[in-house]
Amino acid sequence: MSSSHSIEQALAGTQRHLLVRFMATLLLCLLLVELIVGAIFFYDLFQTEKKILTSMSTEYQRILTYDSSDRLIHVLEANPHRLVDNNIAAYWAQDNSSRPTFVAGDKNVVLNLPFADYQIDESRSWFDTFIVNPYMTLSIKGEQQQFWLVLDNRARDYIAYNQWLMTFYALIALVIVTTVFTRKIIQSAMSPLVTFGDLLDKLKKGQLEFAEPEPDSGQGLTVISSSVHSAVAKLQHVTTTLNTTVDAIAHDIRTPLSRITLASQSALLNNVDPQAMRDALADCAEHAMQASNMLTALMKLNDEVTGKRQPQNVDTQVSDVISKVVSWYDDVAEDKQIQLVSDVADGLIIQSDPDKLTQVLVNLVDNAIKYTEPGGCVTIKAEQSSNIKAKISIQDTGIGIDPKYQDLIFERLYRVDSSRSNIEGYGLGLSLALAMVENLEGQLMVKSECGVGSTFTILL
């Protein structure tokens, strides 16, 4: 089984696990909501039935008080539908000890009830009224007779039950819809991981053909997907750079090592000639120094990239730094018949690392002079830009750089093929300069045209 397939299976299992856990939690919450909603429905029905029973009791009590018991019995028997519609039965008793007699109303309400135990009062809760003892009674007392209104709540349960059932169906539909959308959301959320795993698998096998993703609108999960693609692109770039760097190191180190080998063999063969041995040792020392310098530059570049060389943050007089670099290269430029010009704004002081800035300018000025033909000009200009930054530019009238190489010249150990054979260097100067500028939280840009010259700009 391929690792890509294993990753897909693992992520699919994770998606199912997340969906099951989410739905279990949702169902538990919905069951709790259903219990609360059911309690609310029954409580509301209890209040309604209590209000109806109390209203009817008050009305009948008025008839019994201001008229007679016969009149009340007549009213009850003449209009029983009101009682039947509300599942209420009316009884009368001569006294508390006698057996109640049915008058009118719902005949399904049982007779053998201790009516006094079911009277509505503050001590009876809605739960007891509807679930434990599902009856409600109210007494209507006269001078000689006592009437009872009895309400059977069991006949009214269907009202609250139907309301609760409608809510339950609505919640079931909500669960189904939520499951569908949640599954899609989880799949969308996990898709960058699937892509990431697939890309890593291809990268490991060396089969990755990757193009930088187009910028998106930065909304929703596309941000995560874009970040995954960018991370893999950077990883691929690092891997490619590492391979290229190893090849370049092997290529550049082979030359001095070969010369050291030839010089040492020559010395061994001519061991009777002291001068030949001294020359051979001198060649060995020279080429060993070349290899050492390149490795030292690589280590310095690595320290800059990994942040091991933390920059200072002190007041830096830009004009002093540029003057120092110009003084070092005056003689070199004069020997090559190149005019070296500096144009620095007065009082330009920034918070930076003067040593790193000096190293950056040394690399850029050295390249400018190296690639400028005799009779040309190299100009160093420093000014304050509109956004409160120091802008330093190194402009030359040299051979220029083809546009297709302008993004590659900052790669370590990269040199344009046309310049490798006749220009000394390791291809690390611009890489080191870029790493130092970024370490100073600045920017290094290039603008060049073949046959016209190049301008390197530093923003700090």
Automatic annotation (TrEMBL):
PROSITE patterns: HIS_KIN. It holds the Pfam family HATPase_c. The keyword Transmembrane helix applies. Its EC number is 2.7.13.3. Keywords: Kinase, Membrane, Phosphoprotein, Transferase, Transmembrane, Transmembrane helix, Two-component regulatory system. The chain crosses the membrane at residues 20-46, 164-182. GO terms for molecular function: kinase activity. InterPro entries: BphY/WalK/GraS-like, HATPase_C_sf, HATPase_dom, His_kinase_dom, HisK_dim/P_dom, HisK_dim/P_sf, Sig_transdc_His_kin-like_C. It comes from Vibrio mediterranei. It is an enzyme of class 2 (transferase). Gene3D superfamilies: 1.10.287.130, Histidine kinase-like ATPase, C-terminal domain (3.30.565.10). This is histidine kinase. Residues 248-460 form the Histidine kinase domain. The lineage of its organism: Bacteria, Pseudomonadati, Pseudomonadota, Gammaproteobacteria, Vibrionales. It catalyses: ATP + protein L-histidine = ADP + protein N-phospho-L-histidine.
